[in-house]
Design goal:
The protein has 115 residues and is of the alpha+beta class. The protein is built from four helices and three strands; from the N terminus they run αβαβααβ.
């Protein structure tokens, strides 16, 4: 992981943005780190957010490197200015996608039984 992060930082120094890919917007889910189920709550919130923005013609991508840095790299922790006792549990980039899909792949009909 450290070698991969070193490569990311090396690219950043060259003017490339391998972390946020020049995304115009970023949504961060954070909360008090001592709350039960807070990580799951944040992941669920971001997942619903992803579904919603797709219906508005926007695209999303999880920002895993940023999420890691937000909890372990002091300059990022300081820049995020989260409230005391809060931790970043997920981050999602949002913007207009470069590519669009006109057809959804064909799938077998769902075989679901309700009781």
């Amino acid at each position: 992981m450290i070698m991969q992060l070193n490569k990311v930082l090396e690219n950043w120094d060259k003017g490339d943005d391998p972390i946020l890919h020049n995304s115009p917007n970023l949504i961060v889910a954070h909360g008090q780190e001592d709350l039960p189920c807070i990580q799951e709550d944040c992941h669920i919130a971001l997942t619903y957010f992803e579904l919603y923005v797709f219906s508005k013609g926007l695209g999303t991508c999880w920002a895993g490197f940023l999420n890691s840095a937000a909890n372990s790299y002091f300059p990022v922790i300081e820049a995020m200015k989260l409230p005391k006792g809060h931790k970043c549990f997920g981050a999602v980039m949002i913007g207009y996608p470069e590519n669009s899909y006109h057809l959804i792949p064909k799938r077998k009909p769902a075989c679901v039984t309700f009781y």
